[in-house]
């Protein structure tokens, strides 16, 4: 059985290690870590030390580990179990014996510098990951967000992303080369963050100055709509009833087909920030409208697909467990069949019908596809035509 001793260090030359960690280093032959890590602990290494550089792809590194029938001492940055190499080794070598000596991680060091109460901090790692990691705490309105960066998701890139969705209600604490002699820390506004130069590695802590006030059931008047066609939007009460029918609290992925202004997608993502949302729309002018509405309501993270739905390669997309049909272009039966083929078992389709013809078409299509029709709801607002909220569930 493999054995790993994983020792976390800061960027300080000749790091201050405890006696037990030093003993493990002195008694070992095989070591691994980054080039920078080797330079920092060079004075501790025995003369016969063999070093394996940790570089991508990691599979090559792990292949070398598997050839060693001895203890491997891995040198890591900060806390190896804080989004670090320790977790990766645990996954790749589930039966291995692990001994971990952590140091403070970068976000802890930055919080210590400014005496921030980091027990309340939500962590969003963008290191090798995409924006949903940050979208979740932003939409939730977390008061303190620790952000781990990389060379693509840099402080400037993140600042621009925040401003794109109106999140200028945070101060930023930026830390560079934390824990070493070249450490640099700054407190900046999000706008100022766009103007500064920085070095790697770095991280950020966002601290909320004031909350964004959100409303469940966004007023119709607040949305930007299609020019000259203000009625082309799912109205607030209908929208909320439709979202209730979708049962999004237990959902993972919603497809909003025919998003128009994006009202359903935005309301759904705002209420359920963990929910993944993919929105489809044929009208080219709707692209700018949904993006403007996302910024207005501070709701990032909606995956937008424009163009004729029937011409898109939807099979390449992740399968939904919830679907809302906001528009069908007169091809409801064809759309139902196409969607049913990809819908996960026990998933559902919700559709708001305004005519007897579309009500009948939806029910007939659901029946032909072997779906279970749920009890419909009928709502009339002011002088609008009555709306029938229809729902069909895919049977396993």
TrEMBL record:
InterPro entries: 4pyrrol_Mease, 4pyrrol_Methylase_sf, 4pyrrole_Mease_sub1, CbiE, Cbl_synth_CobL, Cbl_synth_MTase_CbiT, Cobalamin_biosynth_MTase, COMT_C. It comes from the Bacteria. Gene3D superfamilies: Cobalt-precorrin-4 Transmethylase, Domain 1, Vaccinia Virus protein VP39. The keyword Phosphoprotein does not apply. Signal peptide: none annotated. One of its GO terms (biological process) is methylation. Residues 233-356 form the O-methyltransferase C-terminal domain. Coiled coil: none annotated. GO terms for molecular function: O-methyltransferase activity; protein methyltransferase activity. Pathway: Cofactor biosynthesis; adenosylcobalamin biosynthesis. Keywords: Cobalamin biosynthesis, Methyltransferase, S-adenosyl-L-methionine, Transferase. Residues 65-193 form the Tetrapyrrole methylase domain. NCBIfam families: CbiE, CbiT. PANTHER family: COBALT-PRECORRIN-6B C(15)-METHYLTRANSFERASE (DECARBOXYLATING) (PTHR43182), COBALT-PRECORRIN-7 C(5)-METHYLTRANSFERASE (PTHR43182:SF1). This is Precorrin-6y C5,15-methyltransferase (Decarboxylating) subunit CbiE. It comes from Ancylomarina euxinus. The lineage of its organism: Bacteria, Pseudomonadati, Bacteroidota, Bacteroidia, Marinilabiliales.
């Amino acid at each position: 059985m493999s054995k790993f001793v994983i020792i976390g260090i800061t960027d300080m030359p000749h790091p201050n290690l405890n006696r037990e960690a030093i003993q493990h280093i002195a008694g070992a032959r095989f070591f691994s870590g980054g080039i920078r890590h080797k330079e920092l602990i060079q004075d501790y290494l025995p003369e016969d030390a063999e070093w394996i550089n940790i570089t991508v792809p990691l599979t090559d590194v792990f292949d070398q580990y598997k050839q060693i029938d001895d203890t491997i001492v891995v040198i890591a940055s900060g806390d190896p179990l804080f989004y670090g190499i320790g977790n990766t080794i645990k996954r790749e070598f589930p039966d291995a014996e692990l001994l971990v000596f952590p140091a403070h991680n970068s976000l802890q060091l930055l919080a210590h510098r400014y005496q921030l109460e980091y027990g309340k901090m939500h962590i969003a790692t963008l290191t090798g990951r995409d924006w949903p990691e940050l979208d979740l705490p932003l939409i939730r309105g977390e008061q303190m967000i620790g952000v781990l960066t990389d060379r693509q998701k840099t402080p400037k890139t993140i600042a621009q992303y925040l401003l794109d969705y109106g999140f200028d209600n945070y101060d930023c604490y930026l830390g560079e080369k934390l824990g070493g002699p070249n450490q640099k820390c700054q407190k900046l506004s999000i706008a100022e963050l766009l103007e500064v130069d920085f070095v790697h590695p770095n991280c950020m802590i966002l601290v909320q100055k004031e909350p964004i006030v959100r409303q469940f059931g966004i007023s119709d008047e607040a949305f930007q709509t299609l020019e000259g066609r203000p009625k082309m939007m799912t109205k607030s009460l209908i929208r909320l009833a439709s979202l209730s029918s979708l049962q999004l609290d237990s959902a993972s992925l919603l497809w909003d087909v025919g998003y128009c202004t994006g009202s359903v997608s935005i309301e759904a993502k705002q209420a359920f920030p963990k929910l993944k949302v993919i929105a489809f729309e044929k009208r080219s002018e709707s692209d700018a409208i949904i993006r403007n509405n996302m910024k207005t309501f501070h709701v990032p993270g909606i995956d937008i697909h424009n163009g004729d739905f029937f011409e898109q390669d939807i099979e390449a997309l992740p399968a939904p467990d919830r679907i809302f049909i906001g528009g069908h272009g007169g091809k409801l039966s064809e759309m139902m069949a196409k969607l049913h083929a990809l819908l996960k078992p026990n998933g559902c389709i919700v559709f708001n019908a305004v005519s007897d013809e579309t009500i009948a078409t939806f029910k007939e299509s659901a029946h032909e596809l072997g779906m279970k029709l749920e009890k419909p709801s009928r709502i009339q607002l002011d002088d609008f035509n009555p709306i029938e909220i229809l729902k069909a569930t895919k049977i396993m």
